[in-house]
Design a protein that fits this description.
82 residues, Double Stranded RNA Binding Domain, 2 helices, 20% strand
Length: 82
C-alpha cells in the first residue's frame, strides 16, 4: 500500500471486543475475536450495499406464520410511515 492510500478496514481491540470498520462506507461492526468482527463486518457491508440475504422461500414464510399469498411488495406505505 502506498503511504497516501487510505486503508479500507481498520481493526481495533477494545478490551473484550474487536471493532472492525470499513472506512469507505463508514460501516462498523464488532465481535469477540478479530475473525468474528470481520465476519460481522462482511455481513453489515453487504446489507449496507443491498447485496445480503435472499428472497424468502414459501416454506420460510409459512414457518414465520406469513401467508405467501398475502405477502406483497410495492404497495404504498401506511400513513404512519409516510
Amino acid at each position: 500500500m502506498s503511504p497516501t492510500a487510505e486503508p479500507t478496514i481498520t481493526l481495533t481491540n477494545e478490551g473484550e471486543w474487536w471493532m472492525a470498520k470499513d472506512t469507505k462506507t463508514g460501516v462498523t461492526s464488532q465481535g469477540k475475536s478479530r475473525e468474528a468482527a470481520l465476519e460481522h463486518l462482511d455481513e453489515a457491508v453487504a446489507a449496507y450495499k443491498g447485496t445480503a440475504g435472499h428472497k424468502p422461500t414459501e416454506g420460510e414464510l409459512k414457518a414465520a406464520d406469513i401467508d405467501p399469498e398475502r405477502n406483497t411488495s410495492g404497495k404504498s406505505l401506511p400513513d404512519a410511515l409516510q
